[in-house]
Design a protein that fits this description.
- The protein has a single domain, classed as Exo-inulinase, domain 1 (Jelly Rolls).
- Helix content is 9%, strand content 37%.
- It has three helices and 17 strands.
- The chain is globular and about 40 Å long.
């Protein structure tokens, strides 16, 4: 009986919903909201989850273009929370083009027109070279995620997708249970209606899942930029957000509303490498957080109820950059 009670407590802690965030350098308004959130510590959603039988770890990556970190002092203290209520958008299927042959007769048989884009192989794509992942979630159920809603975000599972909605213009996140050290983490994600600086992505290496107030955030903006930040809500007086990689545009990112991208982060020791659609876009180095839990975040900065649909999330342990 004591064992069961202890496991129940652990499950509640690990599957607690987390939503806090820091403000990007150019957002004075966000600072105020962060302050309001930080006045309250994260609380559980009250939703139970099923833990997988094994707990995996992370992998490595390569590339080096560390940006000079800039520190933004947040004039508020964050407080994590979440919510549910989006509509899942199933992933777009890719068809293989058919090939037709013409016969040497008076009437030639027309060549068939490909029904979809020809898949392209990206050199160095971690998903291709690392083999089978150590852990994979196809988002067919909520076994690995806390569901429910609160002031900041909402989460539900629909049509084989995890659907996360931002209910307030601030970073809000939900954590899963695995704790990783060195890893390559990747998700296939489709953003719904969005504009400009709306943002979404991963939070990783969260050292304390029951008080998710620290970690690295890697993400994309609706208008086709990527970024990497470090959030430390424990620093006095009100927490700091450090830009490890500033907002950077890339043609590898499918920009705009209703677009699907593969977002990946490889963390090996102090190296943090950002990938989008298999392309290595940038690298930064930081030693503050060496391991921890991961989760998803959404920041409805410009669009009310910004929604993302995650079709699949996987990680590989101890990769080589």
């Amino acid at each position: 009986m004591k064992k069961l009670f202890a496991l129940m407590i652990l499950a509640i802690l690990l599957l607690s919903a987390c939503g806090t965030g820091g403000a990007p350098p150019d957002d004075a308004e966000l600072a105020t909201k962060v302050a309001e959130m930080l006045t309250a510590m994260p609380t559980t959603t009250g939703q139970a989850g099923v833990f997988p039988t094994d707990v995996p770890k992370p992998l490595p990556t390569q590339t080096s273009l560390p940006a000079t970190p800039t520190i933004i002092v947040v004039t508020a203290t964050p407080d994590p929370t979440q919510v549910v209520s989006p509509t899942a958008v199933p992933p777009t299927a890719t068809s293989v083009p058919a090939t037709a042959t013409a016969e040497p007769t008076a009437t030639a048989v027309p060549t068939a027109t490909p029904q979809g884009p020809t898949p392209t192989t990206v050199a160095g794509d971690p998903r291709t070279r690392l083999g089978n992942p150590a852990w994979r979630d196809t988002m067919d159920n909520d076994n690995n995620w806390p569901t429910g809603s609160d002031k900041y975000t909402a989460i539900e599972f629909k049509e084989g997708n995890l659907v996360l909605t931002g209910l307030e213009p601030i970073n809000g996140w939900r954590l899963s249970w695995p704790e990783l050290t060195d890893f390559y983490l990747e998700m296939t994600v489709k953003v719904g209606t969005c504009t400009g600086n709306d943002q979404y992505g991963f939070i990783t290496r969260v050292p304390e899942p029951s008080d998710p107030n620290q970690g690295y955030l890697v993400g994309l903006t609706c208008d086709g930029r990527y970024f990497l930040r470090k959030w430390d809500g424990e620093t006095l007086p009100k927490g700091t957000m450090t830009n490890l990689i500033e907002y950077t545009a890339s043609t590898a990112i499918k920009a705009g509303a209703n677009q699907t991208n593969r977002l990946g982060l490889m963390a090996v020791g102090s190296r943090l490498l950002v990938y989008v659609n298999g392309v290595l876009l940038g690298e930064a180095k930081d030693t503050q957080f060496s391991s921890g839990n991961f989760g998803l975040f959404v920041y409805a900065r410009e669009t009310d109820n910004l929604t993302i649909s995650v079709d699949e999330l996987s990680y590989w342990e101890n990769p080589t950059p």
